[in-house]
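Section 3.1 - Work completed
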Amino acid sequence: MERRAIEWSEAAWLNPPAAVLADGNDLLVTAREGSDFWRTTSYGFVHDDGHALLTDLPVDTAVEVGFVAAFEQLYDQAGLLIRVDEQTWIKAGIEFTDGVPQLGAVVTHGVSDWSMAPIPEWAGRAVTIRASRSGDALTLRARCEDGPWQMFRLATLAPDAVAAAGPFTCAPTRSGLTVRFTSFAVAAPDDSLHLD
């Protein structure tokens, strides 16, 4: 499968955002205040009202989303959402917490978990998140600008699960977060867990 750009109009919104504006080939998405994806763990609440622009993600496919954002408030976030249903989903990308942007993922199978690592040097720069779906695995990678891909999570996703994927953003604590999404594409999955 050759890499193919996905037109924004080919995908459908899960929870439309406060505003969407086409700017050349980019898409400017403004999140609603209080929007998020989370299930139960530690916080005790369920949120399923984040914004995601989704298209089909069959097995043996990879999806990539590129974006730039000025994250300033606690839990500002954007990246790539992979969704089966309200209890089975994975969000991967950048989230602002502890005063810096963090690269991380929330993997949800009934309840959510959360892994993250600080990447202050990526602040305000172009980021691409890639998810490769192969067998029962979803391999998550990221890169800043044209830097090398780095794997940051290997998660399970049932081979028979009907999944969709695409860009997402949430603003749990404020209004006015606008994310510039710069690319959305599908391609063949990575052929190895460890890229040389």
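Second construct:
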Amino acid sequence: MSNSSANIYLVAGATRGIGLALVAEIAEKDPSAIIYAGGRNPSGSSQLVEIASKYPGRVELVKYVAADKAGNEAIAKEIGRSMVTLTRLGIANPLGKVHETTVENYEEHFSVNVLGPIVLFQAFRDLLKASALPRFIAVSSGAGSIGMMDMIPMDMSSYGTSKVALNWVVRKIHFENDWLIAYPQCPGAVDTDMGAVTTGQREEFVKHFTLRQPHEAASILVGIIRESTREKDGGQFHNIDGGRYLW
């Protein structure tokens, strides 16, 4: 799957929800794209396998486990010289108030949502630096905005804490790497099985937000990413409507 003129993407967390929709959107809208679709068991996702079959030679399934240093380095060796990275979408289950949430739950969220993207960036930094237009986009959440904390109606202590830390890391990456487009991107409220549905708070979500379907959010996100520049977007906390969130 080598092609020096191709737009190369790694979508880490591609077996469901927004990640799956991003793979489908990129494959359909960008004929030059080569997409590496990562997940713990990518071949176990019938929808992802179907997309790969629809675009032979353009969608490659790879095993991706958050914070797995050796595994991430192996993917980096496989992919090659130039790419765009969308980090793993993360976890958000269960949700609860600070006094209700176990330390183990905080640790799990931090491992996947913060250490996962850090390990991914470390593994791919050299490849990104070799790219003509490198981007490292972390999928964050409005729950990671300290300034908007009073506006988020659900109890998201462990999830929100991990996204605050993720935002800090990606903004730090922006300042440390003046050749890179890096920023955290909120996909908005999306009706996925990882989000409000499995956390049991879907009814609360729909009282406050209009839920987009994954393919709708993916279409908007891909457009934002394609038009992004370091000068305009780097180190900013993006929302899906084109604005910026408070940190």
